[in-house]
Structures are given as C-alpha cells and as structure tokens.
Amino acid sequence: LFVDCNNSTLKLLGYENKNDVLLKLPSELSPxxxxxxxxxxxxxxxxxNQALEKGSQRFEWYHKKASGEIFPVEVVLTTINxxxxxxxxxxxxxxxxxxxxxxxxxxxxxxxxxxxxEKSPIGIVHYTSxxxxxxxxxxxxxxxxxxxxxxxxxLLPQSAQxxxxx
Length: 166
Description:
This protein is an alpha+beta fold. Helices cover 34% and strands 23% of the residues. The radius of gyration is 26 Å and the shape is elongated.
C-alpha cells in the first residue's frame, strides 16, 4: 500500500488530494493488465517481491491517471527497511511518455527507410569512409550478382587496403 506521496505524484496522476492515492495498491492506480497482457495486480506483486529480495528494482510500468488516461512510467523501487514487520519500499516514478513517443516515431521512420531502400528500383549501397559496406538493397545485390551476406564488410580485400604490407 502507498503510505505517503509528494505533490509531484499527485500532479503526475492528476489527483488533488493525497487521500485519493494513499492506502491503495499499485495495481489500483494501474490498468487491469500491463502491455504484456499480465494482470497488473499479479505483476506488481512479483516485482515488489523481487525488489524486497534484491534491495531494488527498475522497470517500466503503465499507470492510470485520475482521468483514466493510461501512461508509461519508469519505476525504481528501493528497499528502505528490511524489518519483516515493517517492510518499506521507496518508489520513484518518471513519466516516459515522450520517450515512448520518440521510440515509436524512430521505429516508424526506420521501417519507412527500410521499405524505400528494399523497394527501390536502383541499387543502393551504404559504406563507411573506411570502405566497409554496412548495408545494401536487393537491387544492388542483383546488379553486382552477389548475395548481401557476401557484400557486407570491407570493400577491398585486406591485402589490397591502403597501408597493408601485401
């Protein structure tokens, strides 16, 4: 049960009064299930027990605001008191909504880039200034007549690279 909280917690959750949060279980401030499909109640109990055993635990979690909006947080649980009669975990939440949105945007951008490269009617190859091929598309493989796995790597054989003794 939550036994205390600061004003930042109230603001984060959209509550006006500590009494709306205190003496509630973490799962009562969470959606019924976490994104992996596991019950918030069961998962919270597992993670809390792990934190009590190990001394701390860091993980991502989805909470529910007073408005019903579900949002992602990074949670750090730290055991403060291991007295079996008075177990206390200090909890820190950090709203990671913007980070999750950025991760989604990056993934979509990468998928878009990959689709453009894969479907391009021209051969495309990416290589570093050191002459190492890091990526190429199917059309490039078709043009040079080699599969991608044989093309990725140095452009020149080791013996032909500048500065070699061969």
